[in-house]
Design brief:
Quinone Oxidoreductase, Chain A, domain 1; six-stranded parallel sheet; binds NADP nicotinamide-adenine-dinucleotide phosphate
């Protein structure tokens, strides 16, 4: 094939806030699939805050993207050549396709069922939904009637966590940035209340909204917001550490949570998790999530940017809160 493959590669390791200049656009020949491989034309790229950690040269749960390597990331695309039995030209697949127009795939890529929007397969019915589902139900273990508080609540993961908690009979409070996101949480996602951390005092509002304490605190943010949550946990609470986006771009390591001793006093548990450990059980999550999405019990949003050349710019949106919904880019 004579066509060229545009790729975004890592040019240098960021210091502090990731910048567009940390990546470089290169062109290579489109590869040819060997036996057992498929060639996929990427259509949609998905962006995760954790990408900032993948481009650091520090220990992580995934090896660092090497300098000169194609930026890692989930994508959805169309199969344009197949040497893999069971996958046909025209099938739509998702997987770690990376920031490139064409990618070689294998049996590790997931077929998107006919009729399912690839954007959904990259969000609620993909890695994001699986994170929310197992993070809340397995690690948070909510019980009907519990008060569940979520930081980063209007984001891709947080919004699904809150809606699952509502469907399981919990009272749900979300913490998010800005009136528009908070309005969406209560009006569309049916949260019981939302706190705008950019204009309100989070501690005061948590006191008012959770007078008996927080049973499950699902944290996507870390930093001072985690501290406010820890100060208000109920006896036997579960603090789920899903992410810590407030510190991902910090040049210096952030101080640990000041209120951690409350975990002792409240006989609570604080536990982190990585969605990759639950991928073997993905079908369980999808089986419960898909009907909720289909009947409108779970509202979902995607924030779709356009143009392959805008991939680095699109990643940066996550760290300023410019994204409203799952951050995607249509090539
Ligand atoms: N453990 C796992 O396996 C796993 C898997 C996937 C994701 N995660 C984590 O889940 C979290 C959410 O990821 P996502 O993909 O769903 O992204 P997202 O929530 O859709 O987007 C990130 C959001 O974080 C908020 N944010 C950014 N900087 C912030 C700051 N300094 N303080 C407070 N909030 C800030 C912004 O919302 P506001 O406008 O509300 O500030 C932004 O929209 C991240 O921490 C991510 O690393 C973990």
């Amino acid at each position: 094939m004579s066509e060229q493959n545009r790729q975004w590669v890592l040019a240098k390791r960021p210091v502090g806030m990731v910048e567009e200049g940390d990546f470089e656009l290169v062109t290579t020949p489109v590869p040819t699939p060997a036996e057992g491989q498929i060639l996929v034309r990427n259509r949609v790229l998905a962006f995760e805050p954790a990408m900032r950690g993948w481009i650091d040269d520090k220990p992580n749960y995934m090896p660092p993207v090497p300098i000169g390597g194609v930026m890692r990331g989930m994508s959805a695309g169309e199969v344009i050549a197949s040497n893999l039995s069971g996958v046909e030209v025209g099938d739509v697949v998702t997987g770690m396709g990376g920031w490139q127009e064409y990618v070689l795939g294998d049996a590790g890529m997931r077929k998107v069922p006919t009729g399912v929007d690839p954007k959904l397969a990259l969000s609620v019915l993909g890695m994001t939904g699986i994170t929310a589902y197992f993070g809340l139900l397995e690690i948070g273990q909510p019980v009907e009637g519990n008060t569940v508080v979520i930081s980063g609540a209007a984001g891709a993961t947080g919004s699904v966590v809150g809606q699952i908690a509502k469907l399981k009979g919990c009272r749900v409070v979300g913490i998010a940035g800005g009136a528009e996101k908070c309005g969406w949480l209560t009006d569309e996602a049916h949260f019981d209340a939302a706190i705008d951390y950019k204009s309100e005092d989070v501690g005061e509002r948590l006191d008012a909204l959770c007078p008996a304490g927080i049973d499950v605190f699902f944290d996507n943010v870390g930093g001072p917001i985690l501290d406010e949550g820890l100060a208000r946990i109920a006896r036997g609470a579960r603090v789920v550490i899903c992410g810590s986006i407030s510190g991902y771009n910090a040049e210096q390591q952030q101080p640990g949570p000041r209120n951690y001793y409350n975990i002792v006093q409240k006989r609570a548990r604080m536990q982190g998790f990585v969605v990759l450990d639950f991928l073997g059980r993905a079908a369980e999550a999808i089986a419960e999530l898909a009907p909720w999405v289909a009947d409108g019990s779970i509202a979902w949003k995607s924030d779709v940017q356009h143009g392959f050349e805008n991939a680095p710019k699109t990643l940066l949106r996550l760290y300023s809160g410019a994204n409203f919904g799952k951050q995607l880019l249509e090539i």
